[in-house]
Design goal:
- The structure holds two protein chains of two kinds.
- By secondary structure, chain A is an all-alpha fold.
- Chain A contains 25 helices and four strands.
- Helices cover 62% and strands 3% of the residues of chain A.
- In chain A, the strands form two sheets. In chain A, strands 1-4 form a two-stranded antiparallel ribbon. A two-stranded antiparallel ribbon of chain A has the order 2-3.
- Chain B is mainly alpha-helical.
- Chain B has four helices and one strand; from the N terminus they run ααααβ.
- The chains are: A mainly alpha, B mainly alpha.
- Strand 4 of chain A pairs antiparallel with strand 1 of chain B.
Chain lengths: 715, 57
Amino acid sequence: MSKDIKTVTVTYDDAITRKFALATVVWGVVGMLAGLWLALELADVGFNVSQHLAFGRLRPLHTNAVIFAFVGNAIFAGVYYSTQRLLKTRMASDLLSKLHFWGWQLIIVSAAVTLPLGFTTSKEYAELEWPIDVGIALVWVIFGVNFFWTLARRREKHLYVAIWFYIASIVTVAMLHIVNSLAVPVSVLKSYSVYAGVQDALVQWWYGHNAVAFFLTTPFLGLMYYFVPKVAQRPVYSYRLSIIHFWALVFIYIWAGPHHLLNSALPDWAQSTGTVFSIMLLAPSWGGMINGLLTLRGAWHKLRTDPILKFFVAAITFYGMSTFEGPMLSLKSVNTLSHFTNWTIGHVHSGALGWNGMLTFGILYWLLPRLWKTKLHSVRWATAHFWMGLLGIAGYVLSMWVAGITEGLMWKEFDAEGKLVYSQWAEMVPALAPMYWVRAVSGALYLSGVFLMVANLFKTWQSRGEVADEKVEVVLPDEPHEVTTSVSWHSRLEGKPLTFTVWTTIAAAAGGLFELIPSMAIKSNVPTIESVRPYTPLELLGRDVYVSEGCVSCHSQMVRPFREETLRYGEYGKAGEFVYDRPFLWGSRRIGPDLLRVGGKYPDMWHYNHMLDPRSTSPGSLMPEYGHLFEQPLDTAGVAAKVALFRNTFDAPYGDYEVDNAEILAAVQAGEIADGLVAQGLPDVRDKKIVALIAYLQRLGRDVQLAAPTEEPTE
Amino acid sequence: MKNEILSRTDLLFLPELSLVLFLLIFVGALVWIFRPGAKAAYERRSRLPLLDDEIES
């Protein structure tokens, strides 16, 4: 090795970090305001002030804004800052960085416009319609190309552990997004999933769970491995542990998706696989938590005065708590009680507000003053923000735990004669009201802390110095990428980005392949039920209305095989009855009752009145009013194309007559329903959306009620 | 055709096989990572975030 030290000046692109960091703040406020509004809508139904902001439409806007806008921009800010410094080089292309930034913001704005207007696929965290999905894929590829190009131009041989997590995130998110978003368009903003029923459910929760894994977790673990040592000025506690942490996490996480579908019509082997891997996930998750916390060894005294470390410690602790709670909720016995309740809402918010939120705030407080060449305006304000955030999360999570367990137990309560104590849904709603108010107040407290941060950062910006990209002299190795004395295989792997990426892809893809392929290839996973028929043209249109209004946000369509559920709703859900459901609409939350067997349970007039004024039929209901469905015209013009698509592409058994006359058939069925309503003194709604929705609701579960008592596998 | 072939193949053993393989790999990696003398090899790499602005201009 030469004794002459060679150096080179590197100018980091900090402008892109600043842009993403500011976008994080802006979208964080928007996303959390939407969340607070949703909390208020459940505390008082009067907050559903318009069709565009009603719970079903606002909920996906909130989740998308927080996950992809707030957390997403935070990821990119951290990745752009740390990657350049860990690789000792500027990002490969400023143009690609800018395209990434503006493309991502365009996607967010598109989501903010289309979701309140009712353009949605209804698949959780993947609600955006196909043109936006294409945009996401393109922007993600731009990000990936820029990132891997930068890896190729690096001046540091070894890829630090943070970079591994970034690689895993980039590769896996692309895979998840593309596979789950596969759909066939029927118009500019409407498409149908290529998967149906059980398979759609499995693919969706393979995606949904791993959106949590590879968007909300692995990139943030990368940020943790960079920013915690940086702020604490201590090396990572155990690099060896980080190797175990990374490979185990990346491999195991992808298998756990089916734990979102326990006790459903999903094949039992898939449910059990999801549970087993969820329990195994505890080990690497806690390995990472321990590694993060112990990095602060010798620096704990700084916690007294440094709010940034406070945020970091709280974030890592919440990561540990939510990754303990997750596997517990994946146990079938616990899930029996927790699923469809507010417990799950509390769980995801301990992760989102605690892990993602707190780590993001800590990074912003550390990063932005440095990028603005100044000091943070007020450490006291930041400390106050920390305590407001912590108290806010505590109130939020505790209230949702209480609410979840309360409603779970009420659903299951029988009297001495073996009858349901709460046979009417409306009897249980008031019990949750106090918890909904506590949640709203706690959320407001958390959001107030965020506003304090905005004020603090604004004052910091006002005192900014000369804002310019940072220039540093970095030491060049004698040979490019050659600085190690170790020859172990993992050391060599850390110096080979392509090989590393291939192995990461294999580890992350394995679970999906082993779960998804058997579920689609083996027909016995979805036994055929002869009496199950595709929806009529009008019912198909009604299903589109159901999807558009976000009804799945509050109503499940999956009766689990429990006594209390079959007594309350009817026959449990079977795999074979969802084969024409694109997308599946099993849901993940019951703010209202399950609707799988609602068909024929009430007369058309009940549905008419219920949709117009839910309190008129169900006193105390939290459901918004859907008066606009009685005014908006039913567009039957495109229904023939939809029926043809279902037959020609998805093999639904429609005859030529149904395809050729779909529009007429829809009009005839609408007329029958409308005539019945008119005969009972109600206005004529044959050409309004409400009639299609009534037709769809009245169809739900009817095919199985007509079926023979047993189902026969085709094999 | 492809679905027919796959339908006649019992693929349900694959998750179990993967589980066993994973456990073996996990235990092997654990032993390898924490082998004596390995800590020194990771010393510099664990400090990389602290070395990223070695000489300020």
